[in-house]
Amino acid sequence: MKERRLVGALLVAGLAASSGCATGPEGGSVPPPEIRSQQLHLNQDLTNFHLRLEGEVGSALPATVERAKWEMVVEEKVVKSGEQSLGIQIPENGTGRFEIQASSRYVATAGELKAMSDRGGSLLAALRGTLFVRRGGTVHELPFARSREVRTPRLPSVKLHDIDAGRYSDRQVNVRLGLGVVNPNPFPLAVSALDYRAQVAGKEVSQGTLTRADTIEPSSTGVFEVTFEVDEHSHGADVTKLIKSLEIPWSVAGDLRGELYSIPYAIDGKMRLNVSK
User: Fold this and answer.
1) What pLDDT does 170 receive?
2) CA–CA distance, 50 with 170 (Å, rounded to integer)
3) How far apart are CA 7 and CA 147, in angstroms?
4) Which of 4, 15, 59, 249 could form a disulfide with 63 if both were Cys (CB 3.0 to 4.6 A apart)?
5) Integer CA distances (angstroms), 40 to 74, 87, 160, 187, in order
6) Structure confidence at residue 168 (pLDDT)
7) Distance between terminal CA atoms of the chain?
8) Helical (H) or strand (E) element with 273
9) Nearest partner of 252 among 184, 165, 176, judged by Cα
10) Does residue 166 contact residue 173 with C-beta atoms inside 8 Å?
11) Backbone angles phi, psi at 233, to 5 degrees
12) How far apart are CA 185 and CA 182, in angstroms?
């Protein structure tokens, strides 16, 4: 971690140390335009991340931030570059805000995503480049640079969140399984579907696919509910003996599916029933 921070600091310091250039005449002792603030923001999901650099340029005289040339750097390698028209007007003794955006993709295949999840860690990413600011007949070149660590994505997992078994008689138990999908990432996670096959005492009682209309919040668990009955329809004449045992073995297995992933899971346990009154 310290080494990555040092690399980031050197990257920013080296770029910031590049002196701004000016072309064309500009009389008097008026100080040149300057970048007064820079902030790098991060948005990410399971396969992509997006950097947005916001900053402020100040000038003693009216000026125009005409354009920016930029590079996106990941682990000290340039992965993207471009030029962006800005046309930002700065009034006398005033400031103008600029914004530069760039995106990159961590992975392109399911295998790459799993390997990155297993490896863990983070990437050092930066936006750097030059602003071209025209004031009078002079164009000032103002270097900018900011970097930050980007935590690499982790695949979700499925666990038992809770279980509720309601015994209505010696021949019927209603069961609700809450399957928790754990999102270990610092960003929302989209889940396409949860396939399941539920068994009780070795016999299948339910199967299907559950979907969600929303995403799972960062570092949170989203709950999918599976409901079924244990009765004569599922277990025949043996159901009474099974329910009276007060401990019913169950299992659920399937696949959690989303963009670039399909993760198998299998969970089992025993439902403990209350003695009927």
Assistant:
1) 87
2) 58
3) 10
4) 59
5) 14, 21, 39, 17
6) 81
7) 61
8) none
9) 176
10) yes
11) -65, -40
12) 9
Q: Which DSSP helix (H) or strand (E) runs through 261?
A: strand 261-272
Place of tokens 């923001």: 41
Element holding 15 (H helix, E strand): helix 2-16
Token pair for 92: 């006398």
Q: Tell me which amino acid residue 50 is.
A: H
The helix (run of H) or strand (run of E) holding residue 92 is: none
Average pLDDT, the chain: 90
Residue with tokens 């310290």: 2
Task: Give CA–CA dist 130/254, Å, rounded.
Answer: 52
91 touches 239 (CB < 8 A): no
What pTM did the predictor assign? Answer: 0.81
pLDDT digits (tens, 9 = 90+) for 195-240: 999 999 999 999 999 998 889 999 999 999 999 999 999 899 889 9
Q: What is the pLDDT of residues 1-60, one digit of tens each?
A: 434 443 444 344 444 434 456 655 555 689 999 999 999 999 999 999 999 999 999 999
What ranges make up the beta strands (E) of 10-156? 21-23, 34-44, 48-59, 63-74, 77-90, 94-105, 122-135, 138-151
